[in-house]
Amino acid sequence: MSCRVAVLISGSGTNLQALIDARQHGALGPAELVGVFSNRPGAGGLERAERAGIPTCVIDHRQYADRSAFDQAMQAALESWQPDLLVLAGFMRILTEPFVTRYAGRMLNIHPSLLPRYPGLNTHARALAAGDAEHGATIHFVTGELDGGPAILQARVPIKASDTAEQLAARVQRKEHQIYPAVVRWFSEGRLTMQQGHAYMDGNAIHPTGLDWDALDNAPDTDPN
Ligand code: GRF
């Protein structure tokens, strides 16, 4: 059975591209990318979707009086795709409680830090300023708590003494592009669930900081950067 996935973006959509590529290489399991939604008319990811033949929908949040009105319009648009899963991939909006409740257990987000460290913005600069030895990305189920839902998978990268925030962001993003397709595949295969606010993989509770990508059976990381 296929799993209908809608991807929500606000920006360049490199994570969306990773999902598109994975799908084209048969690496997304039964997940099917049924639509890409953006709250920003110029989002680069829209072109990526169009190039891949995926339907797009743009609703500019600035046209709505408040979050609630925007979320209702967004929900109506998304429902026309009958999604089984919503994938937030650089979607820069805080969601209202009814929207989060509607998609509880079937909405994922990727955040560029090793949560619970650095929820919110400017994560790379914050990790550098703190003198951390490592940084990374976390994929989690979305709940009402900003960047606070149960973690599913984390990928770590080292921080080098010479790093700028941009260099560090690029290193983290290369990991993001590996881990998001994997998690979408797991979900689409029915392996991943959220129950009573906890994440489960194959029926086993996932540790609060998520599974560790490098501890899983993956190809060795040969990234020199
Ligand atoms: C990623 O770094 C992701 O972690 C964060 O927003 C960024 C989106 O990048 N939530 P892109 O649009 O997928 O290139």
H and E string = EHEHEHEHEHEEHEEEE
Bound molecules: 5-O-phosphono-beta-D-ribofuranosylamine
Q: Percent of residues in beta strands?
A: 15-25%
Overall radius of gyration: 17 Å
Written overview of the protein:
The protein is of the alpha/beta class and about 220 residues long. It contains six helices and eleven strands. The strands form two sheets. An eight-stranded mixed β-sheet has the order 3-2-1-4-5-6-7-11, sandwiched between helices. A three-stranded antiparallel β-sheet has the order 8-9-10. A hairpin with a 2-residue loop joins strand 9 and strand 10. Helix 1 (about 15-25) crosses helix 6. The longest helix is centred in the last third of the chain and has 24 residues, at about 165-190. The model has no long low-confidence stretch (mean pLDDT about 95). The site of 5-O-phosphono-beta-D-ribofuranosylamine has 15 residues, from helix 1, strand 5 and helix 6.
